[in-house]
Amino acid sequence: MAAKRDVVERFLEKIDFGTGCWEWMAARRTGYGAFAVPPKRVLPAHRFAYELMRGPIPDGLVIDHLCRNRGCVNPWHLEVVTNRVNILRGTGWSGRHARVTHCPKGHEYTEVNIIWRSGGRRRNCRTCEYARTARKNDAAYWRGYRARRKVEGRPLP
């Protein structure tokens, strides 16, 4: 039991409790705290803090920093979620685009107004797609297109 207390004391010495986030003040890897646990194991500090104070992390789940501070080890700023949920909550490309609710022209993305492309990884607005198709099938559109090309001196494709 004494060895466990020593590890916990060592862990707590490396935290700045000054703000709501418990800032990790020791070694970091890609912004996340790194904590050495005998024998010769280095654990992410936030995972160690969560397991120490809130309980085990189930297999297949990851820790999400609700405060968006990678250096925070406050277990009440951490939540156990699936990797997918963690990515979609984040600020990376996938997370930002998953939160987009309207197309660039302002049409709402609803189930009936979405056309999925590329195996479900890209969505297009059905309203804009119909307008684009209608325009391309319109004879007046092509007359104007040919006239613009002629004026610019570019050959027709």
What does this structure look like?
The chain has 157 residues and is an alpha+beta fold. It folds into two domains: 2-99, Alpha-Beta Complex (Homing Intron 3 (I-Ppo) Encoded Endonuclease, Chain A); 103-157, no CATH class. The protein has six helices and nine strands. It has helices at residues 2-13, 45-53, 83-89, 93-98, 126-136, 139-152; strands at residues 15-16, 23-24, 28-29, 32-37, 41-44, 62-65, 78-81, 114-117, 122-125. It has a three-stranded antiparallel β-sheet. It has a two-stranded antiparallel ribbon with strand order 1-2. It has a two-stranded antiparallel ribbon with strand order 6-7. Strand 3 and strand 4 (32-37) form a beta hairpin. The longest helix is centred in the last third of the chain and has 14 residues, at 139-152. It is elongated.
Summarize this entry quickly.
By secondary structure, this protein is an alpha+beta fold. The chain is built from 6 helices and 9 strands; from the N terminus they run H-E-E-E-E-E-H-E-E-H-H-E-E-H-H. A hairpin with a 4-residue loop joins strand 8 and strand 9.
Cα Rg: 27 Å
Within the largest sheet, what's the order of strands? 3-4-5
Number of strands: 9
The computed structural class is: alpha+beta
Q: What is the number of helical segments per DSSP (H or I, 4+ residues)? A: 6
The best one-word shape is: elongated
Looking at the overall shape, the CATH architecture of the largest domain is: Alpha-Beta Complex
Strand content bin: 15-25%
Order of helical and strand elements: HEEEEEHEEHHEEHH
**Integer count of domains:** 2
Helix content: 25-40%
| Topology-level CATH name of the largest domain | Homing Intron 3 (I-Ppo) Encoded Endonuclease, Chain A
Low-confidence segments: none
Overall pLDDT: 89
Top CATH class of the largest domain? Alpha Beta
In this structure, how is the largest beta sheet organized? 3 strands, antiparallel
Distance between the ends: 80 Å
